[in-house]
User: Fold this.
Amino acid sequence: MTDVPVDVMDVPRRVPPLALVSGPEQVIADRAVKGLLEDLRVSQPDLEVVRLYAASYAPGDLLAQAAPSLFGGDKAIVVHDLDEAPDELQADLLAFLAAPEDGVTLIVRHKSGNRGKKVLDALRSARARVVEAPAIKSDRDKTDFASHEFRAAHRRATPGAVRALVEAVGQSVSELASACQQLIADTTGTIDEAVVELYHGGKVEATGFRVADAAVAGDTSEALRLLRHAIAVGVDPVPIVAVLAQQLRQLVRVGSAGRGRSVDVARDLGLAPWQVDKARRSLNGWTPDALGRSIQAVAAADFDVKGGGRDPVYAVERAVLTITRERRGG
Assistant:
């Protein structure tokens, strides 16, 4: 993904009678539906909104809801989860599209897959507006998403702040979106790393990244200090081991990618350019064999912390010690 997905600020004010929100990213899709409804209310303040869900759909519900009301008024029908729709819902949607009711706006949500293809084809043939909600999976995608959140709110966030925020809460796009909005609402001026540290420095992911950074740099005392502090305040070893594995794999991938421009390597690997630069700096002092042995040590720790060993804390400490020793050349 090279561009940030369409969000509600990108949706034009005039809403056509048919709209399709397509793609798996729930945060973007929810915003798109909300934006479409808000745009409708600009000209239709008394708009009635009806939501229908595939899992609980009863045959005929859509057509009954779309029928003209004795009291008049405009209506928006939001159909969720077309990709899970039973045959009856699909049939009712096709019937509605064949003879749409005046004053009714139909918004259909489809995450992915081929189920509901006839309805999708009918919507597109009827010139429905399509709002894409593509998946936000890679760290590059998440960095672009967070940067766009701040730009859309006319707030400046430094690259270091965006990086720190993705590291702290980037496992969940919805949590990342909430974190961006919290910083926008609760702070003023430039959002930098110190601000992110103040609000999110204690998160599990952030702690794991600090441990991994120290370990990969060969700083045994700092890595163990951070690890023992995390364990003392109740952080589970499992996510720390996961971050260690992620960081080491990233070093291998970047090291194998050659000397191209950071932006090109980042695009090819699904990373953000800053991650490529960071990995390249971290690779100094590492050999391929040392990285291989470290990855094996982390794999063993992963097995132990997930129930295969007797002492999860000792397992992750042993992995950290192996990494720092390998970084220092044995």
